[in-house]
TrEMBL record:
<comment type="function">
    <text>Acts on leucine, isoleucine and valine.</text>
</comment>
<dbReference type="InterPro" id="IPR036038">
    <property type="entry name" value="Aminotransferase-like"/>
</dbReference>
<dbReference type="InterPro" id="IPR018300">
    <property type="entry name" value="Aminotrans_IV_CS"/>
</dbReference>
<dbReference type="InterPro" id="IPR043131">
    <property type="entry name" value="BCAT-like_N"/>
</dbReference>
<keyword id="KW-0663">Pyridoxal phosphate</keyword>
<dbReference type="Pfam" id="PF01063">
    <property type="entry name" value="Aminotran_4"/>
</dbReference>
<keyword id="KW-0032">Aminotransferase</keyword>
<keyword id="KW-0808">Transferase</keyword>
<comment type="similarity">
    <text>Belongs to the class-IV pyridoxal-phosphate-dependent aminotransferase family.</text>
</comment>
<protein>
    <recommendedName>
        <fullName>Branched-chain-amino-acid aminotransferase</fullName>
        <ecNumber>2.6.1.42</ecNumber>
    </recommendedName>
</protein>
<comment type="function">
    <text>Involved in the biosynthesis of p-aminobenzoate (PABA), a precursor of tetrahydrofolate. Converts 4-amino-4-deoxychorismate into 4-aminobenzoate (PABA) and pyruvate.</text>
</comment>
<dbReference type="GO" id="GO:0009099">
    <property type="term" value="P:L-valine biosynthetic process"/>
</dbReference>
<dbReference type="GO" id="GO:0004084">
    <property type="term" value="F:branched-chain-amino-acid transaminase activity"/>
</dbReference>
<dbReference type="InterPro" id="IPR043132">
    <property type="entry name" value="BCAT-like_C"/>
</dbReference>
<keyword id="KW-0100">Branched-chain amino acid biosynthesis</keyword>
<comment type="pathway">
    <text>Amino-acid biosynthesis; L-valine biosynthesis; L-valine from pyruvate: step 4/4.</text>
</comment>
<dbReference type="GO" id="GO:0008696">
    <property type="term" value="F:4-amino-4-deoxychorismate lyase activity"/>
</dbReference>
Length: 302
């Protein structure tokens, strides 16, 4: 288990990462984070996947929130590599987070201290190994994804995750593994912490970016699909299209590519991982492990 964190310019031991009880972000949720994974190649090299893209999105999230961090893009990239290196982990999950300090409580954040922390830890398969092959059962949530004017979807805002956690928890309590949230107009948005793709008649469908996070795995999936001559359409998707899809999968850094075998107990396609999902999933795993030369520019050596 990793023991070295980075907090505001210092490498510290996990035990030293005590945060004040008055930490503003703890109380109000205004902060932003990223989820990044590194993978070990067959040759034993550790590479962080799309580190630049994640760092860029972190800085964009921070900008959207009107905050400023005192570290440059290059410094943040380097710190994430160093924390990974010091963790001695080969396959791991990195969590850079920007949060407000404990200057004061209240909703006036002007001039408050902005902190940055990077943590690296193990996080094996999100839904379990079986799910990668056999798929997961999901439900359409009664919780709605927040309107972009409530919680801006281009930003991975800490507090925004309350919405996803409630949906995920509801799904678990009802015997499902994951939830799919609709947007405020009733169209399919995304999973609690994943983007969604449907396959219908050989075409890959995914919601436009108005109601969901601009996922880095989503972008990766779209590039893989393009390189395999699979047509992609970004458009409004209705709930009933979920039930009649040939294939569905969720994707994200944490869950990687997770096939969906049923929605609201309606079997999707043959109720197993479909052909297109299989192709995208296996290519994705080869790509993150550095097995596909043309995608190696997405890897940052630790
Ligand atoms: C709400 C939400 N949508 C989508 C994603 C997938 O994004 P990414 O592929 O960049 O991890 C995530 C994960 O971070 C998420 O939290």
């Amino acid at each position: 288990m990793s023991n070295t964190y980075w907090l505001d310019g210092e490498y510290i031991k996990k035990e030293q990462s005590n945060i004040s009880a008055l930490t503003h972000t703890l109380h109000y949720g205004l902060g932003a984070f990223e989820g990044v994974r590194c993978y070990c190649s067959d040759e034993g090299e550790v590479n962080i996947f799309r580190l630049q893209d994640h760092t860029n999105r972190l800085l964009e999230s921070v900008k959207i929130l009107g905050l400023e961090v005192s570290y440059s893009f290059d410094e943040l990239v380097e710190v994430q590599k160093q924390v990974t290196k010091k963790s001695n982990l080969k396959n791991a999950y990195l969590r850079p987070i920007v949060f407000l300090g404990s200057d004061r409580l209240g909703l006036d954040i002007v001039g408050m201290d902005v902190h940055v922390m990077v943590v690296c830890q193990e996080w094996p398969s999100y839904f379990g190994k079986d799910a990668i092959e056999k798929g997961i059962d999901v439900m359409v949530s009664s919780y709605t994804r927040a309107h972009p004017n409530s919680l801006m979807t281009k930003s991975k805002i800490c507090g925004g995750y309350v919405n996803g956690i409630l949906a995920h928890d509801q799904a678990k309590k009802n015997g499902y593994q994951e939830a799919i949230l609709m947007d405020t107009t009733g169209f399919v948005a995304e999973g609690s912490g994943q983007n969604i793709f449907l396959v219908k008649d050989g075409v890959l469908l995914t919601p436009e970016l108005t109601c969901c996070l601009n996922g880095i795995t989503r972008k990766t999936v779209m590039q893989i699909a393009k390189d395999n001559d699979i047509e992609i359409k970004e458009r409004l998707i209705t709930r009933d299209e979920l039930y009649t899809a040939d294939e569905i999968f969720l994707c994200g850094t944490a869950v990687e590519i997770a096939p969906v075998k049923s929605v609201d107990k309606t079997s999707i396609g043959k109720g197993t991982r479909g052909e297109v999902t299989n192709l995208i999933q296996s290519t994705y795993f080869d790509c993150v492990k550095g097995k596909i030369e043309k995608y190696n520019s997405w890897l940052s050596r630790v």
